Amino acid sequence: MRTLTYFVATSLDGFIADPKGGFGDFLFEGDHMTALFEEYPDTLPAQGREAMGIDAPNQHFDTVLMGRATYQVPGGLPSPYPHLRQYVASSRLSTTPIDVEVVADPLTKVRELKAETGLGIWLCGGGRLAATLLPEIDELMLKVHPIVLGKGIPLFAGEFPTTRFAKASTRTFDTGVIFTTYTKADTP
After folding, report:
1. Rounded alpha-carbon distances, angstroms, from residue 58 to 49, 117, 142
2. Domain extent for 87
3. How many CB atoms lie within 10 A of CB 113?
4. Which residues touch 98 (CB under 8 Å, ≥6 apart)?
5. Is the pLDDT of residue 72 over 90?
6. Per-residue pLDDT tens over the stretch 73-88
7. How far is CA 70 from CA 64, 87, 116, 127, in A?
8. Residues in domain Bacterial bifunctional deaminase-reductase C-terminal (predicted)?
9. Tally of structural domains, the chain
10. Which of 32, 44, 54, 186 has the maximal Cβ count within 10 Å?
11. Within 13 Å and on the Cβ side, how many CA atoms surround 167?
């Protein structure tokens, strides 16, 4: 069975973007980026892959799911991850390129995708979608940046049940960024 991984950058105070959805305060240079490029090239958008000459096969994910605001980030691409199957959770979005599918019921869609064979499913953002999909999230991969935003889009937004995760690994980089992976804990 495939897994759903919420792989996302976050500030020390738990925000994945500023109040307008921007992420310019996060660190985009340094040894953590080298690790990201080498180990998770499937999470880089098409223009980043092209600029860096990355044409590596997908290593971890073959599908990406994102919220409408993440998909429509200013300056974004109409098809940001053409090397993955792309889904956008939205009840308002009506037009997308042919390789981007809009889904109104992301929980049902994730359950369908998890029943298929293939690589993992990457939950790219946002906070409301993460809260909706929390029952199906198998793994959290947090890229914690050494910044405090004070306000913005939270890692999880809205109402959701308490869910326990167990730490699987932690890597600290010279930039101060920490990659921490958590897996869903067995419930008592």
Report:
1. 12, 15, 20
2. 4-184
3. 21
4. none
5. no
6. 767 788 999 999 999 9
7. 12, 11, 25, 10
8. 3-179
9. 1
10. 32
11. 6
Q: What is the DSSP letter of 135?
A: G
Radius of gyration of the chain (CA): 16
The DSSP code for 68 is H
Q: How far apart are CA 107 and CA 94, in angstroms?
A: 19
- Tell me the backbone φ, ψ of residue 20, rounded to 5 degrees: -95, 5
- How confident is the model at residue 131, as a pLDDT? 97
Tokens of 146: 């050494």
Classify burial at 55, counting beta carbons within 10 Å of its beta carbon; exposed 0-12, middle 13-18, buried 19 or more.
Answer: exposed
For 143, half-sphere exposure in the C-beta direction (CA atoms, 13 angstrom radius) is 21
Query: What's residue 74's pLDDT?
Result: 66
Span 107-149, pLDDT tens digits: 999 999 999 999 999 999 889 999 999 999 999 999 999 999 9
- 136 Ramachandran zone, left/alpha/beta (phi>0; psi -120 to 50): alpha
Grade residue 187 by pLDDT with cuts at 50, 70 and 90: low
